[in-house]
Amino acid sequence: MAIALSELLDETQVILRLRSRKLPNALREIIQLLAQNGKIDDPQRFLEQVLTREQAHPSVVDNGVAFPHARTDLVNEIVIGIGRSRAGIPVGTDQQRARLLFVIGVPERLVNDYLICVGTLVRRVKDDAVRSTLLRAEATHEFINALTADTL
Fold first, then answer.
1. CA distance 36 to 40
2. CATH code at 120?
3. Pairing of strands 14-15, 79-91
4. How many angstroms separate the Cα of 103 from the Cα of each of 106, 122, 150?
5. pLDDT tens sequence across 70-114
6. Is the pLDDT of residue 134 over 50?
7. Sorting pLDDT into bands at 50, 70 and 90, what band is 151?
8. Backbone angles phi and psi of 66, in degrees to 5
9. Does residue 99 sit within a domain?
10. Does 150 score more than 90 pLDDT?
11. Rounded to whole angstroms, how far apart are CA atoms 98 and 85?
12. For the residues 39-61, what does the mean pLDDT come to?
């Protein structure tokens, strides 16, 4: 059964002002937040897995949004951490700037749910009005509301 975005997204898993300017550091910042919230037990290993996947298959930046992720046994459920950068973080082989980073951890057994989740996120952030709200939101609840409004 598919999981609703509202079940996966939490205000405590959003950083509206990433300090980092490089991808590995930005990922570390977001993953540390997930660890602080009890979503990931081994943040260093998870970071290594995400970075390894990024090296092998760099995330594509579309509309200033990237979805670095890892399929891993380090999580029991799909976890999502989000970071926003006003300046943008260079991502991928062409070093396009991502202003929104959705870091996702997914257990192997939930690959179908993961695909549904990412598909829903992609559709939401492709919407200009939603993306604009995400980029201007001053509070994490505004950010989460923009992603989950009118979604199942």
1. 8
2. 3.40.930.10
3. parallel
4. 10, 13, 23
5. 999 999 999 999 999 999 999 988 899 999 999 999 998 888 888
6. yes
7. very low
8. -135, 155
9. yes
10. no
11. 8
12. 93
Query: Rounded to an integer, what distance in angstroms lies between the CA atom of residue 69 and that of residue 129?
Result: 25
How many structural domains are present in the chain?
Answer: 1
3-state helix, strand, coil in the chain (%, to 5): 45, 20, 30
Query: Does the pLDDT value for residue 127 go beyond 90?
Result: yes
Residue 62 carries which DSSP code?
B
- Comparing CA positions, the residue from 63, 82, 55 lying closest to residue 144 is 82
Question: Considering the domain boundaries, does residue 3 fall inside one?
Answer: no
In a domain, 74, yes or no: yes
Beta bridge partners of 123: none
Q: Is residue 118 part of a domain?
A: yes
Domain that holds residue 74: 8-148
pLDDT of 78 reads 92
